[in-house]
Amino acid sequence: MKITDIRVTHVNVPFDAPFWWTAGLYGGASKSIVEVETDQGLVGLGEAPWWHFGEVIRAEIAPALIGADPLDLADCEARCVPPWQITANTGENAASVAFGAVELALWDIRGKAFGLPLYTLLGGAVRKDIPFSEYFAFRPSQDGAGGEMSPEAIVEYCLRMRAEHGASIFEGKLILGDPQLEIRTVRMLREALGEDVQLKLDSNMQWSLTTARWVLREIEPFNIRNYEDPVATFEEMAALRQHSAIPFSTHVPDLRRAVALGAPDTFVCNFAALGGLSKTLKFIAACETMGKGFWCYSNDLGIMTAAYLHVVAATPWITEASQSLFRWQVGDVIRDGPFRQENDTVRVPEGPGLGVELDPAAMKRWAAHFSENGPMSHFDDPARPGRYRRLPLH
Questions:
Q1: Which residues are within 8 A (CB) of 279 and not within 5 positions of it... i.e. 6 or more apart?
Q2: What value does the mean pLDDT of the chain take?
Q3: Angle at Cα 297 formed by Cα 292 and Cα 301, nearest 5°?
Q4: Residue 245, number of CB atoms within 10 A of its CB
């Protein structure tokens, strides 16, 4: 089998309403969808975590892989990704991330070639109902959606998600630069939702170490399951650990430093950003050996989410709920997408490979959105148009 073509399509998939995070208003996803064609008629699907990696795929990865055997992952990687010493010396890892998106499509081809779901290729399923959290954040109103701009509104939203969808795992960003507002909201959520609901938080590194000590001291009695990136560095997290028993997670996949410093406790990652599924499996195995947790990223479309479902299905070590913005996505590029959890879980697809198919009409719609509007900004500060949001470091 040989690779005959690699197509890259940039797409936008907006949220029903944007949410506030450290850098501004976050309005939706801009991704690159990858289709790897073979001379045997099999097509594998991949997804790049950010649209600009699709340009790297077009310029560098695709030309290198034409004629390659899609089942020979080692040869494909050797054609595209420099040795680690080169990337370590240059700081250039774009090729690794871009290849990671394509490598996902190669795994999809492998599953289709053998007629097996990806989780079977990974050793079999230890679970098939995969846990995901509901998400909450401060969101301005937009076309009848959002409007959760106060603690009371966030509590009302979470109660509605529990009533309508059986949600009992919640994660959220309370990022308006006001520590007292976060403390008050957490207190109200715990009082309204009760003791059995899981509450996780994510500040996107907004707090100084001094403020984080205060905030975590105040919210610790409310049984916080996890706090993602409460401060900006692992060193600060290690210092914060001396004052708080709340577990910490991060998007920064530096296992050596986490082990050396004793914090954070868990990594939250996108598979392509780690260099592909093969490297992700090695990273998770290393986390297990060193006693560090792992769960999956949010704001991915259906192709990457399917990969998350299969890997978690086949990996006993991943037991905590992964992140999810599914409820806010207004569409997807796959048939019957987006995935949406009920009673905190999503069922792993049973088809060969990733078990998902592109929806041609949806692809056309969201590609046109990208073409007409450009990539969606994740750094929009309405108070200072054209500039990054700058929160005061309390």
A1: 100
A2: 96
A3: 155
A4: 8
Please give the Cα distance from 11 to 231 (Å, whole number): 32
Which of 69, 80, 75 lies closest to 44 in space, CA to CA?
69
Strand-pair category, 3-21 with 248-250: unpaired
Q: Rounded mean pLDDT of 296-319?
A: 97
Report helix, strand or coil for 45: strand
What is the rounded average pLDDT of the residues 3-10? Answer: 98
- Interatomic CA distance for residues 370 and 344, integer angstroms: 31
pLDDT single digits (tens) 266-302: 999 999 999 999 999 999 999 999 999 999 999 999 9
Instruction: List the 3-21 sheet strands across, edge first.
Output: 3-21, 24-38, 43-48
Residues 357 and 330: their CA atoms lie apart, in Å, by 18
Pick the CATH number of 120-347 from 3.40.47.10, 3.30.70.1450, 3.30.1390.20, 3.20.20.120: 3.20.20.120
Q: Which two tokens stand for residue 324?
A: 């999810």
Instruction: Give the pLDDT confidence of 189-210 residue by residue, as tens digits.
Output: 999 999 999 999 999 999 999 9
Of the pLDDT bands very low, low, confident and very high (cuts 50, 70, 90), residue 90 is confident
Q: How far apart are CA 370 and CA 51, in angstroms?
A: 10
The ranges of the chain annotated as CATH 3.20.20.120 are 120-347
pLDDT of residue 390: 77
Selecting from 3.40.1280.10, 2.40.30.170, 2.40.30.20, 3.30.390.10, what CATH number does the domain 3-115+360-373 have? Answer: 3.30.390.10
CATH 3.30.390.10-classified regions of the chain: 3-115+360-373
The whole-angstrom separation of Cα 373 and Cα 356 is 27
With CA atoms as reference, report the closest residue to 269 among 294, 289, 287. 294
Rounded Cα distance between 263 and 235, Å, is 8
